[in-house]
Amino acid sequence: MKFKLTILTLTFFTFFINAQEINIGSNIGLPIGKISNAYSSNLGLDASILWDFDKETQVGVSTGLNYLFGRSLEVGGQKLKTEGILYIPFAATLDYHLYDQFFTGADIGVGLMLRKYDSFKFYFQPKFGLIVSDELKAFSYIRFLDGGTLIGLGFSYNILK
């Protein structure tokens, strides 16, 4: 058992050390469509590890912590408050550099819904962004999470540069 754990740890650190980018960042979003009746906004923290696939393409993994804020509703004359949702996305990520200053990409995976839900939901996030510097990227996104849709803005900072 210790041998397997040691091999797994060494494999993880090998991938980690060979990464070309380790990004941390944040995002803010607004629910659109039916989900906007129950939730008002989204706030999140992001982390990703990216490796160069070729000159323009990077692949990797991403995760984070996001919170969808509940909204107060009036149903049948009674005021109700929707409970917020805390979720952790686990996704494969792809970034494609269009030019020196622009990139597009997508994250696809699952979102682990925490608290009373404790379930995995489909997660897909296409994005388009601006490469501000070697360290900083700003992007817009549309996020699909189990039938709900959010639009938003985010940034990431490469801690390896």
Helix and strand layout, with pairings?
Blueprint: H1 2-17, E1 21-32, E2 39-52, E3 57-70, E4 72-75, E5 78-81, E6 85-97, E7 102-113, E8 119-131, E9 136-145, E10 148-158
Antiparallel strand pairs: 1-2, 1-10, 2-3, 3-6, 4-5, 6-7, 7-8, 8-9, 9-10
Provide a descriptive summary of the structure in words:
The protein is mainly beta. Helices cover 10% and strands 66% of the residues. The strands form 2 sheets. Strands 1-2-3-6-7-8-9-10 form an 8-stranded antiparallel β-barrel. A hairpin with a 6-residue loop joins strand 1 (21-32) and strand 2 (39-52). The longest helix has 16 residues, at 2-17. The protein is globular. It starts with a helix and ends with a strand.
Mean pLDDT: 89
| Ends distance | 37 Å
Counted beta strands: 10
Number of helices: 1
Provide the low-confidence segments as ranges: none
How would you classify the quaternary structure?
single chain
Q: What does the largest sheet look like?
A: 8 strands, antiparallel, barrel
Cα Rg: 18 Å
* Secondary-structure element order, N to C: HEEEEEEEEEE
> Helical amount among residues, as a percent range?
under 10%
Strand order of the largest sheet: 1-2-3-6-7-8-9-10
Strand fraction: over 45%
Structural class based on helices, strands and sheet pairing: mainly beta
Shape descriptor reads globular
Please sum up the structure shown.
The chain is mainly β.
Keywords:
single chain; 161 residues; mainly beta; 8-stranded antiparallel barrel; two-stranded antiparallel ribbon; 1 helix; 10 strands; 10% helix
